[in-house]
Design brief:
One of its GO terms (molecular function) is tRNA (guanine(26)-N2)-dimethyltransferase activity. By secondary structure, this protein is α/β, with parallel strands linked by helices. Helices cover 36% and strands 21% of the residues. It folds into 2 domains: 33-280 and 328-382, Rossmann fold; 391-485, N2,N2-dimethylguanosine tRNA methyltransferase, C-terminal domain (Phenylalanyl-tRNA Synthetase, Chain B, domain 1, 2-Layer Sandwich). The strands form 5 sheets. The protein has a 7-stranded mixed sheet with strand order 5-4-3-6-7-9-8, sandwiched between helices. A 3-stranded antiparallel sheet has the order 11-10-14. A 3-stranded antiparallel sheet has the order 15-17-16.
């Protein structure tokens, strides 16, 4: 390395990198993103396994048909065959010519790309691209230093890429919004391919600049709503889903997370015109009270028609008794209403992190953030899949000028009342539940009766007074069931490793 005094050496995973010592350089090392890269390697490795399984399943189905197996018997045989497969072994035995093709569309220094090439099993080819000339030059230097030469290095505008060739994996990791690149990405991914997208424009997605968010993602956030962290993910997924739909394609979220100062989603993309027709059932609007945390969600479309299988416009919700006080309603969205995660895949990812057998997934030995990933994925696996958005408990207590009750007691009250409840991976005080707004407020009414709030602030015209003077209709029992007492010793919300941990 020439002029070594002007560069610093960074070792991450399997890779040694040189970065300019000048912090003002356009090409820099961001230690905050190590967890992002580690998670990406884990998720893409598992995507490679699923892809390899799909290939052998397709070949076996063809073989059964050639043997004359009837349609009736084929289904049973295929189920038995798929159940017998070990995905890691299938990938390890895959013909290298059928390996994974990856596009790192905004590669910067090439660190992510090099780690992908060296650590993800079954990788056939990596295309490294960046529009910035300094980034391309730095990537080339780092490729040579790591003896990784069997790749393609390009200096192109990702927004202008054609749909050919198509890649099995496309990674979009911009510093800012990924919105300008989504159209090209959903066209450039293979059927069943894996799309990884990061957005760091949380001021827009988080509601500080709703007009900017709407311009980028065609969705309106709700400023100061307690669930903005999750809404940001669902806005991005809505944008991906509607962009893909233009080309007869659908998305299937595998993992959607908020980490540090950004959001990251991993989705599979499929050619699926029937799925596009049903998309309106998976998108919806949020109706948020202007005075309290109560909210309602309504899909954009609904099933109807003579046989109940046609698609019709959705209806405005009848708020009725579910509105706590006489208040106006803000409308946000549209957002993605479907699951954020594929829990089967998340469970496999957790199992791989726990495994001591490096032959199962060799790349695990390079993962430096295992404990943080274990906490993140555990939280994701515990989340309710069919309950979009969450309540922020301190925000609700603040509305009543009350002390915040222990989270475990509120969860217990909801479980004891017959409802389901979980947390949310990015917010320690989040409550995801299928309980109606009224039940949440009933729990807090009973809490406030036992722990009176500051009465001087709760004057007759206050929101708190209007809510607290209603009589609870829910039997509230704060006793904590054993199911909530179980703690597996996993840190779901670990402390940042150093002060000022954020965007560099």
């Amino acid at each position: 390395m020439t002029d070594a005094v002007n560069y610093k050496t960074i070792i991450e995973g399997s890779t040694t990198m040189y970065f300019p010592a000048d912090q003002e350089s356009t090409v820099f090392y961001n230690p905050v993103q190590v967890q992002n890269r580690d998670l990406s390697i884990l998720m893409i490795s598992l995507a490679a396994e699923r892809r390899a399984v799909r290939q052998v399943v397709k070949a076996q189905r063809k073989a059964f048909r050639s043997e004359g197996v009837s349609n009736k018997g084929l289904s049973t045989k295929m189920e038995e065959y798929e159940a017998s497969l070990d995905s890691a072994r299938v990938l390890s035995e895959q013909d290298p010519a059928l390996g994974l093709t990856i596009l790192d569309a905004l590669a910067a220094s090439g660190l992510r790309s090099i780690r992908y090439w060296k650590e993800i099993p079954g990788t056939k080819h990596v295309t490294i691209n960046d529009l910035d000339a300094a980034a391309v030059e730095r990537a080339w230097t780092n490729l040579k230093h790591n003896n990784v030469m069997d790749v393609v290095l390009e200096q192109n505008d990702t927004r202008d890429r054609g749909i050919h060739p198509r890649w099995d994996v496309i990674d979009l990791d911009p510093y800012g919004s990924a919105a300008p690149f989504l159209d090209a990405a959903v066209q450039g991914i293979e059927d069943g391919g894996f799309l990884c997208v990061t957005c760091t424009d949380m001021a827009a997605l988080g509601g500080s600049h709703p007009e900017t968010c709407f311009g980028r993602y065609a969705s309106m956030p709700i400023p100061r709503a307690g669930y903005l962290q999750e809404m940001a993910l669902r806005i991005l997924l809505h944008s991906l889903a509607t962009t893909a739909a233009k080309y007869g394609r659908t998305i299937k979220p595998i993992l959607s997370v908020g980490m540090n100062f950004y959001i990251r989603v991993f989705v599979e993309v499929y050619d699926d015109k029937a799925g596009v027709n049903a998309l309106s059932l998976k998108l919806g609007r949020v109706f948020q009270s202007t005075q309290c945390a109560s909210f309602h969600i309504k899909p954009v479309g609904q099933l109807g028609g003579k046989n109940g299988n046609g698609y019709q416009p959705g209806r405005v919700p009848d708020f009725g008794q579910s509105v706590e006080i006489d208040e106006s309603i803000k409308v946000g969205g549209p957002i993605w209403l479907g699951p954020l995660h594929d829990k089967t895949v998340v469970k496999v990812a957790l199992d791989r992190l726990e495994s001591k057998d490096e032959t199962v997934l060799p790349s695990m030995k390079w993962i430096a953030t295992k404990d943080r990933l274990r906490g993140l994925l555990t939280s994701c696996h515990e989340e309710l899949s069919d309950v979009p958005l969450f309540y922020n408990l301190p925000q609700m207590a603040q509305t009543l000028n009350a002390t915040t009750p222990p989270l475990i007691k509120v969860k217990a009250a909801l479980l004891n009342a017959g409802f389901r409840v979980s947390g949310y991976h990015k917010e320690p005080q989040a409550i995801k539940t299928n309980a109606p707004n009224q039940v949440l407020w009933d729990v807090l009414r009973v809490w406030c009766k036992e722990n009176p709030p500051n009465s001087t602030k709760n004057h007759e015209c206050s929101v708190a007074h209007k809510i607290l003077t209603k009589t609870p209709t829910t039997h509230v029992d704060f006793s904590v069931p054993m199911a909530l007492r179980v703690d597996r010793g996993i840190a779901r919300f670990p402390q940042n490793p150093e002060p000022h941990w954020g965007p560099k």
